[in-house]
């Protein structure tokens, strides 16, 4: 068994001297135990020489380890002494520097204490801080300039890459604006410069890409719809969409796509020449008769061209995006209509300002706008990007400002029409050809009143804002019904007073008046009232109003059919 010596694993082995630290008796006992372990038989004496060689080798190894440990210990002691000396020297040097700095501060400021010297140096230190801040501003301006140059270098070939520095610049402008009021140092000029640079850069980027598309359109003789578009046309069309990607993502309202804004440019020039210039068709007295139909004709003539050429590009561009189901971005005709709507709104505003004091023209013009809105919705399936509720229409925005004068005009016309009906010669005559068999016969006046109510209902249904519907309903239809109710009620009250003794005495009725309510003449008078009331009620129910409206109408009608029947029954079969 070989001798196992592992003194190198114990730090104590390097510190103990076996000749001094281990007693002689203990050393002899260890040697004796080791010899007894190694030499137990006579045969073990033959390996005595090898044991001695092994012992000598172990001894040399231990001596080498001891020398190495002694050397390392000496080096460690020297290093520790040097470090302590160096640290002491550095401490002394720092103290000398601090004393020197204090002396210099007091010398420069003629101060008697360091605190006073620091106070006197606040001014120069603030100037130094301003210099550092100015340096930071210069670096920021350099970054802005670099981002601007990088964006321009990528146009017109790579608008997607051009967007990256532009987006960084825009984010920087937004960050500066957000922190403007929260930082100690404000820099309104810097913030304004970065914002203006971002805005100007975007305008330049759009201008470069638009000019490229315009050059392509010029070679294709746009707006000639018979010329077949080229691959370059589709490429430029798609690049404009790429450039507008951030704006499209952030849009909360219907957005005009850049390629369609370019396509509409020539159409806009023609529109403004014909309808917003000095030509005869520009007159506001013509209302929407020409320009609204002109826009529809433009859409019709371009529909096929747009679906064939722009449709595939839109579908490919928005494929897989959240806008893939939005008609404003995947339907070329809807996108085209969106680009044309500003022209309609501008012309509409001009007309409204010119006719605002003419109720007749105002009423007619709003009606034309409602019809035009419905045509766009039904013919082109235009929903304004709102699948759930649909497009609100140009009329929606018009009535935001002009609803009150328009409602006043409509109310005036409705009441005037009602008065004309009441003044007509056949107003009180029974229309024996009215209604089906086995129903009451109404008067010509009641028929005309129901026609008026149907006209009002048509306008009421075209209004898309609930508050406008309610106000229009109350101010026109209810106003007409109230007047007609009063008229029929007065007729009924007059009949009742003339058929009673007290009533005849109180009113001083003449014999001619008494004869008008007796016999067949009285029956005819009552039938006029009853037939007219029944006809009004039936007509209102057939208009498919909301149940609330029907309840209001029934409540305000002359009287229920039951009450009228009781009066009618009392005439035919008098009691007693």
Automatic annotation (TrEMBL):
Alphabetized UniProt keyword annotations: Coiled coil
Source organism, top-level taxon: Eukaryota
Chain coiled-coil ranges: 45-79
GO cellular component: Dsl1/NZR complex
InterPro entries on file: RINT1_Tip20
GO biological process, one term: retrograde vesicle-mediated transport, Golgi to endoplasmic reticulum
Pfam families xref list: RINT1_TIP1
Name of the protein in its database record: RINT-1 family protein
Naturally occurring in which organism (per UniProt): Sclerotinia nivalis
Lineage: Eukaryota, Fungi, Dikarya, Ascomycota, Pezizomycotina
